[in-house]
Amino acid sequence: MQEPIFLESVFQEKIWGGRQMADYFGYAIPSDQTGEFWAISAHPNGPSILKNGPYAGKTLAEVYSQAPELFGYPAEPVFPLLTKIIDSSDWLSVQVHPDDRYAMAHEGELGKTECWYILDAAEGAEIIYGQSAANREELSEKIAVGDWDGFLERVSVKKGDFFYVPSGTVHAIGPGIILLETQQSSDTTYRIYDFDRVDDQGQARDLHIQQSLDVVTYGPVANSKPQTLQVDALTSTLLVTNDYFTVYKWEVAGPLEMTRTAPYLLISVIDGTGQLEVAGRSYPLQKGEHFILPHTVTDWRLEGQMTLIASHTS
């Protein structure tokens, strides 16, 4: 299979969602409370389905299991990464994710380390990125009395910012933000605080205080330091690399020949238009497109004026 893999993927409606994905990407969203688009996903809670090639109609999880040669015969038993678009018209819950050890023991799935590339942000937009309590006892006390402003760290954000969010980091995305998230393939979230919201049935969402206290890490969050390299028609910025994934921003300005250096690539077009050429065939690309370059694609050509986010397992 010497061709890219294009996908039909799932939108998720959320109490805090909005309609920025329609405005920013032109997506046909299901409602004005569309919070997430699981653009490249093999997770059972939001599986992507292949649109092209000999495996069209199968889920990404099925293809990962049945055709391991497309992914370089990976060691991981499940497809390890997930690419999302998130639109927050209101605050997401203040939350934390477990690491692999805790998640496998208690939830039966991978932990969740993630990172965010801010696609756009309203003036004054903020996130919660870390917390100041020194230890479990202090954090437990502050949660018990609801001293949220006393320990949650707020950070202003703007278009083009990048944040690395390792497991154990207390965090929340604020209103007026649309971002691309690269994460481990996990759907485990422990809520610490949900701004006293209720759903349309008047019910508050569950909190997970005990689990949160079990997994929170202490001390300041160490964000990554992106590194940029320009070669010919490509400006490549290494956004982060860790034990789970490596993420790049590629700014393409003209024709560009590329060769595979990772088992496979997950690619999202976040701006511009152009085309991808593989094995003599051309595929038009536009803002909002997401695809996989499998292991069987060893070289390809990009042309146009585009900004891409590319990721692979580390």
UniProtKB/TrEMBL annotation:
Cofactor(s), names only, from the UniProt record: Zn(2+)
One Pfam family from the record: PMI_typeI_cat
Swiss-Prot/TrEMBL keywords: Isomerase, Metal-binding, Zinc
Catalytic activity: D-mannose 6-phosphate = D-fructose 6-phosphate
CDD domains membership: cupin_PMI_type_I_N_bac
Stretches assigned to the Phosphomannose isomerase type I catalytic domain: 6-116
EC number annotated for this UniProt entry: 5.3.1.8
Annotated Mannose-6-phosphate isomerase cupin domain residues: 237-312
GO molecular function: mannose-6-phosphate isomerase activity
Root EC class: isomerase
Family as reported in the entry's similarity comment: Belongs to the mannose-6-phosphate isomerase type 1 family.
Protein name: Mannose-6-phosphate isomerase
Gene that produces this protein: manA
